[in-house]
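Quick entry between incubations.
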Amino acid sequence: MKVNFLQIQNWFKIHFTLNKFSMMKNNFNVRNLTVPVLICVFAFMFISACKRESYTLLTNEDVNITSYLDRYPDQFSLMRQVLERSGTAGYLDAYGKYTLFTPTNAAVTQYLKDFSITVSRPINSVADLTVEEAKNVVKIHLLPDTVATNKFTDGKLAQITLYGQYLQTGAINVGGVSSFIVNKLAKITKSNIRLGNGIIHVIDHVLIPAKLSSAEMIAANPSRYSYFTKALKETGFYDSLNVASSAVTDTTRRFQTVILESDSALQKAGFATYNDFKTRYSKTGNPKSHADSLWLYMAYHISTGPTYTPDIITTPAIYTLAPKEVITTKFVGQKIILNEDEYNGVVEPGVEINRTFSDVTTANGVLHEVKTPFRIKVRLQIPVYWDIAEQPELRTNPLWRGAAAASIVLVSNGASILSGLTLNRIPTGSQAPKYDYSIVNTNRWYNANDKLIFSMATAANSTARNQWIELKTPLLVKGKYKVWVCYGYLSTGPATQVAFDVGTSAEQTLPNLVDFKQSLTAGGVSTAATSIGAVGADDTMLSNGFKRYMMTTAQYLVPPTGGRGSVPTNGSGSEVMVGRLAGTVDIQTTDRHKIRFTVVGPGNADGNTVIDMIHFIPLDVDQLYPRFSTTGAKFPRP
Amino acid sequence: MKKIIYSISMIVMLITVSSCRKWLDLQPRDGITRAGFWKTKEDIQAAVAGCYTSLLAPPPGVNDKALTEYIFMYGEIRADMISAGPNATEDEKNVFDNNIVQSNTITPWAAFYRTINYCNTVLDFAPGVKEKDPTLTDAQLNAYLSEALALRSMMYFYLVRNFRDVPLKLTSTSKDTDLSELEKSPAAKILNQIVEDLKRAEAGAVTTYGSTVSDKGRVTKFTVNALLADVYLWMDNYSACITECKKIIDSQRFAIQNANSSWYNNVFYNGSSTETIFEFNNQQSTGATNNIFYNLLIQAKKRFIAAPYVLTDVFVPDDLDPVRNFDIRGNGTFYRTSDFSIIKYGIENPSYVNWQAYRITDVLMLEAEALAFTPGGGQQAVDIINTIRQKRNAVAVTAQTPSPEDADAICDYILAERAREFAFEGKRWYDLLRVAKRDNYRRIGILLEMISRTVSPAVQQSAINKFKDVNSHYLPINESELFADSKLVQNPFYTK
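Done. Structure below.
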């Protein structure tokens, strides 16, 4: 370097001198220039003789899916041939976002052997597959999105394959080694290989699309489902479950979910033969009639959409093909339980899903099995006296109706902690809704000493408070009910409108406003002993849509419960516990519904809406009694 | 003549100007190089202090989470006492759902190895100071080395419990040629190295530094004993565990404080109490490092909240008089039931509440667990738990009455009591795993039951099946580490 530098310096000097001369004399001496130029050339050659550096010329060295398969022919040469045969090799080497479940060579070899038997023609190599067959193989393995294993659940993947069937994922443990498994068949041996245009998961079996429809799949297992096969055929559901999903015109029925009952379960339930089963239900003689109970029985086991077990867990009710009949769902520990409902104060045991025989994918849906049979329950309308503080999340809280007065805020970290409570916004601090439980009461007396407290206001008054709240009711049998909102009167309370199932096709708005600043005096009585305390006061109030719902001090529970009511019969305090008739609701489906309170009138204070109970009382049932007490006991009509 | 004078002066000037040699000097001006360091005992002290500082926050210019944050997350997310808050990241939620892949951002172990390297640097260079600084005594040098050894062992113990087999690096990486690709060492080898190092550390460590804050915030002989007891119990070496616990208990330097209104403030908020054996000191008196917990646990959009399980099963209110009769570790001190915030680490921003690494109750319960598996030790174990419960004013609902012969039942009781005593202290997952893996995973059911409660229902069955594979109990090596070190082999569970 040093030498070179001096050389250049020398050359520069000469050159400069020359220039000077040439400028003066206007004479360019070429011969003098030759030597320095030659030196320069050598010098540069010398410099550039340094070791060549290799630069990265690409911004990304990731290969695409097809190129990746090319790189490992010992593992994927056969799948690579399938891509070639199907004409998708180029497409999977282009830009995009895919997930390819890639079977190994061993898996493809096995598949070809099996497929040869299925189609009964010799298939010795990939070349023996038709283009269409090869295409189908690729399609069932390909998702049009990148799905890593952390998106896997116990059920179907969110994305559908290009074949048009969902893939079902899970994990299994064999001999202490756990792996992901796809379609209950193919174990993932290498996961989450990130490539330029997607993700590859290596699997040890070729995925086989379900060829049989739900109906065929059930019929293909006559030792297990002979009752159901016959019943489906006789009721006509066999045909509707036997239509390829591409041929279905009603898009909601492209996939259907069937909950099966095995022969042994039905036999255990007392149906020794299919005929016993049929005669038990089919009363009209025509099982295809929608009025026939056998038709309804089967319809009650079928629902629309591909509902895998995680979907069952996350949805509170399955809407079946039986009109207005739902299956309620529950998840307890590891069990999925259907139709475990509290009805008339009694918890009816539900039926458990048999996970081993569930999540069976068919060409047009999914099949599950329950351990014991279930049917539509013929339920009579009963009054539901709902203490709205009886929320499942609160019941598990030891502070709920505990040994000491307690308050539980119902929102936490920007969300409601109750699954049965929806709010138009999540208020904070003193405006947050809360559960309140007291032991000593002096001027308000609530059923079981607890209530839910909300802070409500119109949007014009306060956007920080709630404009509406929505509660999920207990199970209501279909029919008409009078809806009584039972609350503690507060002078700051808002006027609210009560509506059912807002935003659904079954939306109903009730006629009477529930105004939380109305005491019983709005029902046409005064607190005088001669008015509210007099005989006939209840009727006066009832005619105005009001009632007392708490026991008075004049009312005593019979032993062994025992105890006396708390609300004064007259005078101050006698008017504050209000039952207000919101109107009559026509419940169309036996299910849990949503009741919404929307503020329409003034009222703007913290904790101004104190709701204790909501009564749903059928029209032909006593509307005034039973009354309730601070111990939670019911007081029947004396 | 003029020209000559001019030329000479030019030449003189050029010579004088260029006689400055500094422009060739490559020493940094804003720091100290190794050649300039490691000269006096104060240098060693400064370097050891650096090891401690690395526990609290990443060094300047390094974009990483604080080591304490990793320790908290590793110890809690996979267990059952915290849930995802509104601001939990997708990766954190995936860990809650037992859906971990190697690209998950909570898995990098760099923070642990960074501290290990600081300790290794002290261990490599501190002995050389002996020749340069005649005032450095052997005892002093050994004390410093013990601190570094203990901290390094602690880091490796975290790594072994979280990743099982990890690279074992016992020399410093202080120049480019020190960089080398390391293979994983089996967990057993690392545990043996930890025991060996800790025994060396025990010999050199001091019993006191002469000030309470230093005694709690720096490694003492008792810190080494506590760590060793924990390691021995992890290795199921019960008699050695009991021996180590006894050394601490018999020293009479530590005591459980009474259950009164100032208990939380003494032990946690102010820290350095008689209960503490070793803590990561964030307090103002030692330089005030903001602990990371405001963002994690307190702010409106927090990442973690207490799990509902804490209320329903861990801190159950008394069924007779919950107002007057309550566990001092529950609502109001460790967490609050109103919004399930974890308030153990203070609710202020910034917060300087220390991280409690070992407290006397930890040692007592380690001893109890070892005693439970020692013939004839069952009753003693139960007595220890009952003593702690009495001191904490534990309520009757949470009491259990295991038979002194039934080691498993005592162990369950210890697990339940440890959940209360060390709630949100980053210990729960290791407690569960330690009990579950004992005797060749005889009690794996503990983990399966736990995971069935904690994950989302939609992935529950998968999560249970994954947990049946014991490899899944350890975290994957992060993909960036695999990329950097081609000799690393991924935990087989995560390649599938």
